[in-house]
Specification:
Blueprint lengths: L1 H7 L2 H4 L10 H6 L3 H7 L2 H7 L4 H13 L5 H17 L3
Length: about 90
């Protein structure tokens, strides 16, 4: 099958390492996950939990939401820690 493919597709496209694919996290955080993220990253909640610097997280979240900077993956780490805290540490 590969030999047939070589006849129709350049070898450079066939003979390369596998690559993954990414999810549209940046768009999701600005769209369908916006209210969930806003809730987990609210300044009062961050200050109450004390895991992260609320001012820094708020700045990064604001930059991301406005489109000034892409902070999706940075924010995702914070969001996962917040969600973990809710699941395992909150009464």
């Amino acid at each position: 099958m590969r030999q047939v493919l070589y006849k129709h597709v350049p070898a450079a496209l066939i003979d390369r390492p596998k690559t993954g694919f990414s999810i549209p996290l940046d768009d999701w955080l600005r769209g369908p996950l916006k209210s969930w993220a806003s809730d987990l990253l609210s300044p009062d909640r961050l200050r109450r939990q004390g895991l992260f610097n609320a001012k820094r997280v708020g700045h990064q979240f604001g930059d991301h939401m406005s489109g000034r900077r892409n902070r999706g993956y940075w924010l995702w780490n914070v969001l996962m820690a917040q969600a973990w805290h809710d699941e395992w540490c909150a009464g």
